[in-house]
Amino acid sequence: MTTATFPAQTKKGLIIQFAIEEADDDQLITHLKNFISKLEKLDIQPIGNGRGEPALSVANVSLTRPPAANPPPTNDNGKSARAYPTAFPAETIVTTIDAGKAYYRIKGGPCRKHGVTVWPEVLEQAGFVLENIPSSEPFPLRGYTAHCILNQNGLPQKVTSLVKQ
User: Fold this and answer.
1) SS3 116
2) What is the dihedral of CA 123, 126, 129, 130, to 10 degrees?
3) Given Cys at both, which of 46, 50, 90, 105 links 144, Cβ 3.0 to 4.6 Å?
4) Continuous segment of H or E residues that includes residue 6
5) Which helix (H) or strand (E) segment is 32 a member of?
6) In the chain, where the domains are located
């Protein structure tokens, strides 16, 4: 399977993350071009990822292979470090208040102990009202899957979306 993910923005400013998966590369390119064309007709515009990559358009869809994978991360004694998934069952939202600012973490699955940082915008996009999330105790979050990106060491860096199961 080959997957492409990209953000797009509606006229009202809502940012949506899309993922398209196909059995092979040629099918993915065809599906992606058709999908982007339909989005543009609905006035939903693909946007860049904020890291210097341009927004997708029908004209610039192409397939590039990621660089060869780095060797698996190791811990201090040279043994392979634990491999973390890019999605896990979300169990709770934990809020920390520091200098009057709220910081959020999603805990669950292999990230039950420390949790993974989640930005307020991601919680709002998933339908949560930040004012309703208590800071005094963990907020139950059953029935959601947290999708995250991993840092260069293979550890969860941040939650990029919460999807209701």
Assistant:
1) strand
2) 0
3) 90
4) strand 2-9
5) helix 25-41
6) 2-60, 87-164
> For 23-60, how does the pLDDT look when each residue is reduced to its tens digit (9 = 90+)?
788 888 888 888 888 888 888 888 765 555 566 665 65
Kindly report the backbone phi and psi dihedral angles of residue 36, in degrees, each rounded to the nearest multiple of 5, phi listed first.
Answer: -65, -40
Three-state SS at 137: coil
SS3 124: helix
Find, among 57, 34, 60, the residue nearest to 46 by Cα: 57
How many whole angstroms separate alpha carbon 71 and alpha carbon 22? 27
Structural tokens at position 75: 């811990």
Helix (H, G, I), strand (E, B) or coil at 37: helix
Domain range 87-164, CATH architecture: Beta Barrel (2.40)
Phi first, then psi: give them for residue 32, nearest 5 degrees.
-65, -45
